[in-house]
Write a structure and sequence with these properties.
The protein has no helices and 24 strands. By secondary structure, it is mostly beta strands.
């Protein structure tokens, strides 16, 4: 299936599952507040410098894009804007992002406002090339556990958990103005990036 510039903007008003979709240059995808897009096979965005593909909210904040398919997804010249709970969530899926921007997202306890990567099985590679992760905010609050801390993790820009054979590759990327806002909690870390 192909989403064309002629059919743009595409409006997503309910949670959406995509499989084997190509999105042409210049397409805008407008997602209702709280709704997510989940990719179970692959997604290809063919944006250009002058005509990027843009994912954003119709109002409020939307839930971002999740990738869980075994086939490699490839995003080029794509902006993912105004999310809550993780702009790009990858669970054991290969992904390449080139000349992409992830900006102005928020997340609560747990981290990964921009990119949240869970690469725990097989040999998965997520590659980011000339990408910008900007203005991500993680707000940490809540009751303390018995040992005086809460298990929140970190990484408002990028949070990556990988096994010994999977990896995150970053080439010429910028992490800019990403922040962790703490409410008296000392164990959060890595406003730009947190790796484990």
């Amino acid at each position: 299936k192909t989403w064309t510039a002629a059919g743009s903007p595409y409006r997503v008003t309910a949670n959406l599952t995509l499989s084997a979709v190509t999105i042409q240059a210049g397409v805008r995808v407008c997602v209702s507040a709280g709704k997510t897009i989940d990719v179970v096979s692959w997604l290809r965005t063919n944006g250009t410098k002058d005509q990027p593909v843009v994912f954003g909210a119709t109002s409020g904040r939307w839930g971002g894009i999740g990738f869980s398919g075994a086939a490699r997804s490839d995003l080029r010249h794509t902006s993912i804007v105004g999310t809550a709970g993780g702009a790009v969530r990858v669970t054991d899926a290969p992904l390449t992002m080139t000349d992409c921007t992830v900006r102005d997202g928020t997340v609560g306890n747990g981290g990964g406002s921009g990119l949240r990567l869970r690469l725990n099985s097989g040999t998965m590679v997520v590659r980011l090339e000339r990408c910008v992760v900007r203005g991500q905010r993680m707000t940490v609050s809540g009751p303390r556990c018995q040992n005086g801390s809460i298990p929140t993790g970190g990484g408002s820009g990028i949070q990556a958990v990988t096994n010994a054979t999977s990896k995150l590759e970053m080439v010429d990327c910028d992490l800019v103005d990403n922040r962790v806002d703490r409410s008296g909690i000392a164990n959060t870390r890595g406003a730009g990036m947190w790796l484990r």
